[in-house]
Amino acid sequence: MISLIQRVSEARVVVAGRTVGAIEAGLLVLACAEPQDTEAVADRLLAKILKLRIFSDEAGKMNRSVQDLDGQGRAGGLLIVSQFTLAADCSGGNRPSFTAAAPPEQGRRLYEHLVQRAQALHPQVAAGIFAADMKVHLVNDGPVTIPLRMG
Predict the structure, then answer these.
(1) Considering only CA atoms, which of 50, 46, 6, 21 is closest in space to residue 127?
(2) 84 near 31, Cβ under 8 Å?
(3) Where are the domains of the chain?
(4) Contact 83, 33 (CB under 8 A)
(5) If the chain, 151 residues long, is cut into consecutive pieces of 10 residues, what is the mean pLDDT of each piece?
(6) Residue 149 and residue 17: Cα distance in Å, rounded?
(7) Which of its termini does the chain have fewer beta carbons within 10 Å around, N or C?
(8) Which residue is catalytic, options 85, 98, 99, 116?
(9) Which class is domain 2-138?
(10) Per annotation, catalytic residue among 6, 67, 83, 124
(11) How far from chain centre, in Å, is Cα 39?
């Protein structure tokens, strides 16, 4: 799976003028399944995301994960959004190819698995709607943006 992790002070997803998912401080996770991906790959990606130390401690060093955002055990939010365009191949011309993304049925299954596992393991999880025309609003904190790929 391909993902792009953004540390945010707030983020929300809007579909047809309605907010379908929102968080305050935490991580916006843009996720794309590839054809070879499985639920085990999604689980490894989620484990990495939950433990990724990209929040500042008292000394200003990136030493805290989303699970302990403030050092007092307060977890930050996760907003998980499907984004097949992370698999874009622009090497053949000016129009990206998305053939490296998983087929829609597999992509939906793995995205929903990722969201469900996140909800089981983390107290604050919101999500977009698979294959919807989404408007993602975010305030990138830092900015901190990290690409992750599990396979």
Answers:
(1) 21
(2) no
(3) 2-138
(4) no
(5) 98 98 98 98 98 95 93 92 97 95 98 98 98 98 97 88
(6) 32
(7) C
(8) 85
(9) alpha beta
(10) 83
(11) 16
| Residue 106: active-site member | no
Q: Which pLDDT value is given to residue 118? A: 98
Contacts of 9-12 with C-beta under 8 Å, sequence gap 24+, read 9/139, 9/141, 10/138, 10/139, 11/77, 11/79, 11/136, 11/137, 11/138, 11/139, 12/79, 12/136, 12/137, 12/138
Dig out the tokens for 107 from the structure: 């992509």
- E-only strand ranges, the chain: 2-15, 18-23, 26-32, 55-56, 62-64, 77-82, 125-127, 134-149
Residues recorded for the chain: 151
- Do residues 26 and 36 make contact, with C-beta atoms less than 8 angstroms apart? no
Active site residue 99: no
Q: Residue type for 18, please?
A: R
The active-site residue out of 6, 55, 67, 84 is 84
